[in-house]
Amino acid sequence: MLWILVFLFGLIIGSFLNVLIFRLPANKNILGFSKCQKCQKEIVWHDNIPILSFLILRSRCRECKTKISWQYPLVELSTGFLFLISFFVFGDSPFFLIYVLFLISLLVIIAFIDLKHFIILDSLILTGFIISFFYLLFPDCSIISCAFSNSIFGLSFFAGIYLFLFLISKGKWLGFGDVKLASWIGFAFGLRNSVDIFYLTFLIGFIIAIILLGFKKAGLKTKIPFGTIMAGASILFLLSGFSFLDLIDGELILRIWSKNH
Ligand SMILES: [Zn+2]
Protein backbone atom coordinates (compact mmCIF):
# COMPACT_ATOMS: atom_id res chain seq x y z
CA MET A 1 0.00 0.00 0.00
CA LEU A 2 3.07 2.19 0.29
CA TRP A 3 2.89 2.89 -3.43
CA ILE A 4 -0.42 4.77 -2.99
CA LEU A 5 1.30 7.11 -0.53
CA VAL A 6 4.18 7.60 -2.97
CA PHE A 7 1.70 8.49 -5.73
CA LEU A 8 -0.17 10.96 -3.47
CA PHE A 9 3.16 12.45 -2.40
CA GLY A 10 4.00 12.87 -6.12
CA LEU A 11 0.68 14.68 -6.71
CA ILE A 12 1.37 17.10 -3.83
CA ILE A 13 4.92 17.77 -5.03
CA GLY A 14 3.50 18.21 -8.55
CA SER A 15 1.17 20.86 -7.17
CA PHE A 16 4.17 22.69 -5.69
CA LEU A 17 6.09 22.33 -9.00
CA ASN A 18 3.13 24.06 -10.72
CA VAL A 19 3.61 27.03 -8.41
CA LEU A 20 7.31 27.18 -9.31
CA ILE A 21 6.60 26.80 -13.05
CA PHE A 22 4.19 29.76 -12.89
CA ARG A 23 6.09 32.06 -10.55
CA LEU A 24 9.81 31.57 -11.23
CA PRO A 25 9.81 32.92 -14.82
CA ALA A 26 7.66 35.88 -13.70
CA ASN A 27 10.04 36.58 -10.80
CA LYS A 28 7.16 36.31 -8.33
CA ASN A 29 7.49 35.31 -4.69
CA ILE A 30 7.17 31.53 -4.50
CA LEU A 31 5.66 31.68 -1.01
CA GLY A 32 2.15 32.88 -0.32
CA PHE A 33 -1.26 31.70 -1.46
CA SER A 34 -2.16 30.96 -5.05
CA LYS A 35 -4.44 33.41 -6.79
CA CYS A 36 -6.68 33.10 -9.82
CA GLN A 37 -4.73 34.52 -12.79
CA LYS A 38 -7.82 36.44 -13.91
CA CYS A 39 -9.77 37.76 -10.91
CA GLN A 40 -6.79 37.70 -8.47
CA LYS A 41 -9.02 36.05 -5.83
CA GLU A 42 -7.03 33.88 -3.43
CA ILE A 43 -7.69 30.19 -3.88
CA VAL A 44 -8.96 28.57 -0.67
CA TRP A 45 -7.23 25.34 0.45
CA HIS A 46 -10.12 23.04 -0.45
CA ASP A 47 -10.07 24.38 -4.00
CA ASN A 48 -6.33 23.67 -4.20
CA ILE A 49 -6.32 19.87 -3.83
CA PRO A 50 -4.37 18.19 -6.66
CA ILE A 51 -6.56 16.74 -9.45
CA LEU A 52 -9.70 16.59 -7.26
CA SER A 53 -10.32 20.35 -7.21
CA PHE A 54 -9.74 20.53 -10.94
CA LEU A 55 -12.44 17.88 -11.48
CA ILE A 56 -14.89 19.24 -8.89
CA LEU A 57 -14.61 22.81 -10.18
CA ARG A 58 -14.84 21.45 -13.75
CA SER A 59 -11.59 23.23 -14.59
CA ARG A 60 -13.04 26.70 -13.84
CA CYS A 61 -12.30 29.32 -11.18
CA ARG A 62 -15.01 29.25 -8.44
CA GLU A 63 -15.37 33.04 -8.50
CA CYS A 64 -15.04 34.23 -12.08
CA LYS A 65 -15.46 30.92 -13.96
CA THR A 66 -12.30 31.48 -15.99
CA LYS A 67 -10.84 28.24 -17.34
CA ILE A 68 -8.01 26.82 -15.23
CA SER A 69 -4.98 25.81 -17.29
CA TRP A 70 -4.57 22.14 -18.21
CA GLN A 71 -1.01 22.54 -17.03
CA TYR A 72 -2.14 22.02 -13.41
CA PRO A 73 -3.50 18.48 -13.65
CA LEU A 74 -0.90 17.55 -16.30
CA VAL A 75 2.07 18.46 -14.09
CA GLU A 76 0.44 16.90 -11.00
CA LEU A 77 -0.33 13.61 -12.74
CA SER A 78 3.05 13.44 -14.51
CA THR A 79 4.87 14.00 -11.21
CA GLY A 80 2.65 11.45 -9.44
CA PHE A 81 3.35 8.76 -12.03
CA LEU A 82 7.06 9.57 -12.33
CA PHE A 83 7.42 9.31 -8.54
CA LEU A 84 5.53 6.03 -8.59
CA ILE A 85 7.74 4.53 -11.35
CA SER A 86 10.87 5.77 -9.53
CA PHE A 87 9.64 4.02 -6.39
CA PHE A 88 9.20 0.73 -8.25
CA VAL A 89 12.58 1.01 -10.01
CA PHE A 90 14.75 2.37 -7.18
CA GLY A 91 12.73 1.49 -4.04
CA ASP A 92 15.53 -0.84 -2.89
CA SER A 93 18.00 2.04 -2.60
CA PRO A 94 16.16 4.69 -0.54
CA PHE A 95 19.02 7.18 -0.59
CA PHE A 96 19.31 7.02 -4.36
CA LEU A 97 15.51 7.20 -4.67
CA ILE A 98 15.51 10.56 -2.87
CA TYR A 99 18.16 11.84 -5.28
CA VAL A 100 16.11 10.60 -8.25
CA LEU A 101 12.99 12.40 -6.96
CA PHE A 102 14.99 15.64 -6.73
CA LEU A 103 16.35 15.15 -10.28
CA ILE A 104 12.89 14.42 -11.67
CA SER A 105 11.26 17.39 -9.92
CA LEU A 106 13.91 19.74 -11.25
CA LEU A 107 13.71 18.29 -14.78
CA VAL A 108 9.89 18.62 -14.76
CA ILE A 109 10.13 22.33 -13.79
CA ILE A 110 12.79 22.98 -16.46
CA ALA A 111 10.81 21.08 -19.11
CA PHE A 112 7.56 22.98 -18.54
CA ILE A 113 9.15 26.44 -18.24
CA ASP A 114 11.08 25.87 -21.47
CA LEU A 115 7.92 24.59 -23.18
CA LYS A 116 6.00 27.75 -22.20
CA HIS A 117 8.66 30.47 -22.37
CA PHE A 118 11.66 29.05 -24.26
CA ILE A 119 13.94 29.87 -21.35
CA ILE A 120 16.06 27.83 -18.96
CA LEU A 121 16.64 29.65 -15.67
CA ASP A 122 20.19 29.82 -14.28
CA SER A 123 18.85 29.40 -10.73
CA LEU A 124 17.47 25.96 -11.65
CA ILE A 125 20.72 24.80 -13.29
CA LEU A 126 22.66 26.02 -10.26
CA THR A 127 20.30 24.10 -7.94
CA GLY A 128 20.90 21.01 -10.09
CA PHE A 129 24.67 21.32 -9.82
CA ILE A 130 24.48 21.72 -6.03
CA ILE A 131 22.22 18.67 -5.59
CA SER A 132 24.38 16.52 -7.90
CA PHE A 133 27.55 17.70 -6.16
CA PHE A 134 26.20 16.59 -2.77
CA TYR A 135 25.11 13.27 -4.23
CA LEU A 136 28.67 12.69 -5.45
CA LEU A 137 29.96 13.13 -1.89
CA PHE A 138 27.88 10.11 -0.78
CA PRO A 139 27.22 8.23 -4.01
CA ASP A 140 25.50 4.92 -4.62
CA CYS A 141 27.97 3.61 -7.18
CA SER A 142 25.81 0.75 -8.39
CA ILE A 143 23.46 3.06 -10.23
CA ILE A 144 24.76 6.20 -11.92
CA SER A 145 27.90 8.27 -12.12
CA CYS A 146 29.57 7.85 -8.75
CA ALA A 147 32.96 9.41 -9.39
CA PHE A 148 33.82 13.07 -9.82
CA SER A 149 36.09 12.15 -12.75
CA ASN A 150 33.18 10.53 -14.58
CA SER A 151 31.00 13.57 -13.90
CA ILE A 152 33.67 15.98 -15.08
CA PHE A 153 34.07 13.95 -18.30
CA GLY A 154 30.28 13.90 -18.73
CA LEU A 155 30.12 17.66 -18.20
CA SER A 156 32.91 18.41 -20.67
CA PHE A 157 31.50 16.03 -23.28
CA PHE A 158 28.01 17.56 -23.10
CA ALA A 159 29.13 21.17 -22.67
CA GLY A 160 31.54 20.77 -25.60
CA ILE A 161 29.15 19.12 -28.02
CA TYR A 162 26.23 21.48 -27.32
CA LEU A 163 28.44 24.55 -27.33
CA PHE A 164 29.69 23.42 -30.76
CA LEU A 165 26.09 23.02 -32.03
CA PHE A 166 25.19 26.41 -30.52
CA LEU A 167 28.15 28.14 -32.19
CA ILE A 168 27.88 26.61 -35.69
CA SER A 169 24.11 27.31 -35.82
CA LYS A 170 24.62 30.79 -34.32
CA GLY A 171 22.03 29.94 -31.68
CA LYS A 172 19.36 28.86 -34.19
CA TRP A 173 19.19 25.15 -33.32
CA LEU A 174 19.47 25.60 -29.61
CA GLY A 175 19.90 28.40 -27.11
CA PHE A 176 22.70 29.03 -24.64
CA GLY A 177 20.35 27.89 -21.86
CA ASP A 178 20.38 24.45 -23.50
CA VAL A 179 24.20 24.40 -23.30
CA LYS A 180 23.96 25.10 -19.55
CA LEU A 181 21.28 22.46 -19.06
CA ALA A 182 23.39 19.93 -20.98
CA SER A 183 26.39 20.73 -18.78
CA TRP A 184 24.44 19.89 -15.64
CA ILE A 185 22.93 16.72 -17.15
CA GLY A 186 26.42 15.59 -18.22
CA PHE A 187 27.68 16.26 -14.69
CA ALA A 188 24.75 14.48 -13.03
CA PHE A 189 24.73 11.38 -15.24
CA GLY A 190 28.40 10.88 -16.09
CA LEU A 191 30.05 10.26 -19.44
CA ARG A 192 28.66 6.91 -20.56
CA ASN A 193 25.06 7.75 -19.64
CA SER A 194 25.40 11.14 -21.32
CA VAL A 195 26.12 9.42 -24.63
CA ASP A 196 22.86 7.48 -24.25
CA ILE A 197 20.91 10.61 -23.29
CA PHE A 198 22.41 12.39 -26.30
CA TYR A 199 21.12 9.69 -28.67
CA LEU A 200 17.73 9.64 -26.97
CA THR A 201 17.39 13.44 -27.14
CA PHE A 202 18.06 13.54 -30.87
CA LEU A 203 15.84 10.53 -31.55
CA ILE A 204 12.90 12.16 -29.72
CA GLY A 205 13.67 15.55 -31.31
CA PHE A 206 13.76 13.95 -34.75
CA ILE A 207 10.41 12.18 -34.22
CA ILE A 208 8.79 15.41 -32.94
CA ALA A 209 10.21 17.38 -35.90
CA ILE A 210 8.79 14.81 -38.36
CA ILE A 211 5.38 14.95 -36.65
CA LEU A 212 5.40 18.77 -36.67
CA LEU A 213 6.41 18.86 -40.34
CA GLY A 214 3.47 16.53 -40.99
CA PHE A 215 1.19 19.37 -39.99
CA LYS A 216 1.17 21.98 -42.75
CA LYS A 217 1.39 24.87 -40.27
CA ALA A 218 4.86 24.00 -39.08
CA GLY A 219 7.79 24.87 -41.28
CA LEU A 220 11.51 24.40 -40.80
CA LYS A 221 11.52 27.56 -38.72
CA THR A 222 9.07 26.29 -36.11
CA LYS A 223 10.68 26.72 -32.71
CA ILE A 224 11.12 23.51 -30.73
CA PRO A 225 11.79 23.71 -26.97
CA PHE A 226 15.02 21.73 -27.01
CA GLY A 227 15.44 21.87 -23.23
CA THR A 228 12.07 20.16 -22.79
CA ILE A 229 13.19 17.32 -25.05
CA MET A 230 16.55 17.01 -23.27
CA ALA A 231 14.85 16.93 -19.85
CA GLY A 232 12.31 14.36 -21.09
CA ALA A 233 15.06 12.18 -22.56
CA SER A 234 16.97 12.30 -19.26
CA ILE A 235 13.91 11.20 -17.28
CA LEU A 236 13.16 8.44 -19.81
CA PHE A 237 16.75 7.20 -19.60
CA LEU A 238 16.81 7.35 -15.81
CA LEU A 239 13.64 5.33 -15.37
CA SER A 240 13.98 2.87 -18.27
CA GLY A 241 17.73 2.22 -18.11
CA PHE A 242 17.52 1.74 -21.87
CA SER A 243 21.00 2.01 -23.31
CA PHE A 244 21.95 2.55 -26.95
CA LEU A 245 25.52 1.70 -26.08
CA ASP A 246 24.37 -1.70 -24.83
CA LEU A 247 22.52 -2.11 -28.11
CA ILE A 248 25.70 -1.38 -30.05
CA ASP A 249 27.73 -3.76 -27.88
CA GLY A 250 25.04 -6.37 -28.40
CA GLU A 251 24.67 -6.61 -24.62
CA LEU A 252 21.00 -5.64 -24.64
CA ILE A 253 20.20 -8.15 -27.39
CA LEU A 254 22.04 -10.84 -25.44
CA ARG A 255 20.16 -9.94 -22.27
CA ILE A 256 16.76 -10.13 -23.98
CA TRP A 257 17.79 -13.32 -25.76
CA SER A 258 18.98 -15.04 -22.60
CA LYS A 259 15.80 -13.99 -20.80
CA ASN A 260 13.69 -15.78 -23.41
CA HIS A 261 15.77 -18.93 -23.50
ZN1 LIG B 1 -11.03 33.78 -10.98
Features:
single chain, 2 domains, mainly alpha, 261 residues, binds zinc ion
Task: Characterise this structure.
The protein has 261 residues and is an all-alpha fold. It folds into 2 domains: 1-82, no CATH class; 92-261, no CATH class. 68% of the residues lie in helices and 0% in strands. The protein has 11 helices and no strands. The model has no long low-confidence stretch (mean pLDDT 87). It binds zinc ion. Residues 36, 38-39, 41, 61, 63-64, 66 line the site of zinc ion (ZN). Zinc ion is lined by residues 36, 38-39, 41, 61, 63-64, 66.
Strand content: under 5%
Shape: globular
Please, how many helices?
11
User: Strand count, sense and closure of the main sheet?
Assistant: none
Class from helix and strand fractions: mainly alpha
Bound molecules: zinc ion
Oligomeric description of these chains:
single chain
**pLDDT < 50 stretches:** none
Order of helices and strands: HHHHHHHHHHH
Mean of residue pLDDT values: 87
Number of domains in the coordinates? 2
What is the C-alpha radius of gyration, as a whole number of Å?
20 Å
- What is the share of helical residues? 55-70%
How many beta-strand segments? 0
End-to-end CA span: 34 Å
